[in-house]
Design brief:
The protein has helices at residues 3-10, 79-88, 99-104, 106-114, 134-153, 174-182, 202-216, 228-243; strands spanning 17-20, 38-42, 49-50, 65-71, 94-97, 118-121, 164-165, 186-188, 192-193, 219-224, 247-253. With 264 residues, it is α/β, with parallel strands linked by helices.
Length: 264
């Protein structure tokens, strides 16, 4: 076991993440591609909330390890470009999908999953859940989950096949956090972001994001696949990661233990 592996396993007390073998470089058509370094299986039962922008703990990433996450899609004009850039570098990411968008573009949701990415949840209508009554907030969350599950599997369900959720605007409330934790749904914040909700050129966004990454050196990165500037910037950012010896970690749900499945 390498020193890096020992360090990661030593952080298990902070978060129960099980490293799994990722696709090897030989499985990628391009030998010089960035690739996906490894897979982390995230157990919501022991790691209910991660991301230092919102919570005290984050994923147990080593130096120069990043997790790529995309919010607010799918969007027909830009998500295919994001997928193409990821495929070119054999990189897998996590898409926190809006239910309303999934209902409008179900084939795109299936394409994201078919290409090996993780499809997670981001509400149905992207409201600020913090200022809603708890029952209304949970109803929007469940409607979003049902829409994504319908797009993926052809059947509505409020128990997500991937129990990962990200709050719109990162605006949480304790009551909904408690409900999600009881239901075994992990809540994801982020460690750094590209601020791509602000108008800027792809070059400006690349500069901003790489400077933040140079400071943080690792973490969960927030991007938005509906943003034109992000789709345009992404190939250069992935080349930057490759050329500067960063490694991409793909997150997936931990497999449920036998007899531990819940009904809601």
């Amino acid at each position: 076991m390498t020193r890096n592996s020992i360090a990661i396993w030593g952080m298990a007390a902070l978060a129960s993440m099980i490293p799994a073998t990722a696709a090897t470089a030989s499985e990628c058509p391009r030998k010089d591609a960035l690739g996906t370094s490894r897979v982390l299986a995230v157990d919501p039962a022991t790691s209910p909330r991660v991301g230092l922008k919102s919570f005290p703990q984050t994923l147990p990433l080593g130096d120069r390890e990043v997790v790529l996450t995309f919010d607010d899609g799918p969007w027909p004009g830009t998500t295919p470009k994001v997928l193409a850039a990821l495929a070119q570098e054999c990189v897998r990411a996590t898409f926190f999908t809006i239910g309303r968008a999934a209902a409008a573009q179900p084939e795109m949701v299936r394409k994201i999953a078919a290409q090996g990415h993780t499809v997670a949840h981001h509400s149905f209508s992207h409201p600020n859940l913090k200022f809603m009554k708890p029952e209304a907030a949970i109803a929007d969350i469940d409607k979003g989950i049902a829409a994504v599950e319908t797009a993926l599997h052809g059947k509505a369900a409020t128990t997500p096949s991937t129990p990962f959720f990200r709050y719109p605007y990162f605006e949480t409330s304790q009551s909904t956090l408690d409900v999600l934790q009881k239901r075994g749904i992990a809540v994801f914040g982020a460690d750094l972001w590209a601020s791509d909700w602000n108008p800027m050129t792809p070059a400006q966004q690349l500069k901003l994001l790489t400077e933040r990454l140079q400071s943080a050196r690792k973490g969960i990165i927030l991007l938005h696949d509906p943003k034109v500037q992000t789709a345009a910037m992404l190939p250069a950012f992935l080349r930057y990661l490759r050329d500067n010896n960063y490694r991409v970690v793909h997150i997936v749900p931990a497999r449920p233990k036998a007899g531990s499945e819940k009904t809601h």
